[in-house]
Specification:
alpha+beta; Alpha-Beta Plaits; 2 domains; 3-stranded antiparallel β-sheet; elongated
Amino acid sequence: MIESNTRRRKAQAIILRKMLETGIRVGSNGRYYSEEIEIPDISISRALNVDRRVVRQTADLILSNPNLVNIFTKLTPITFFKDVAHYFGFTVIIITSQAERPGIISEVTSIMAKNKLIIRQAVADDPELNKEPKLTLIIEGEVPSEVISELQNIKVVKSLTIVK
C-alpha cells in the first residue's frame, strides 16, 4: 500500500512508515499529530532526515487520496512498557518466531493462563514493517523457569529473551 502510493518518492515512504510505527496521524487541517499534540513539520523532517517540504507534500498526498485518508488520519500511538517494565516489577518476554506460521499468540497466552500469569501488555510487530517481527509480553511479576522452558518448546519459536 505504501509502495504503490510513493513509487518514486522514497522520502514520502519513509514518512508514511514512521507514521505507522509511531501512530502519528494527519489531521483534516494537514497538520501532524500524536493524539492531540501537534508535531511541527520541521520536527519530523529533522528526525527522519528528509526535506521539510517533503513532509508537507506527504500530508497533502494523504489528504488527496481516500485510501490514505482512511488510514493515516485515524492512527493512534500506544504506551509500550517494554523499557520501563522493571520499574513496575514486571518481566518482559521477547519472542521471535516464524512470522509465516500462525498461532504464536494463542500458544503463548494459553501457557500464561494455564500458569496463572497475568499479561499486562502484549505487542506483536507487523511482519510488513519489521524484517524480524517480535511478540513482546509484559508479565506481572516473575516468570517461573518451567514456564520459560514451555515457551521455548513451542515449535514456531526461534528465540526467546527475558528482561527483568
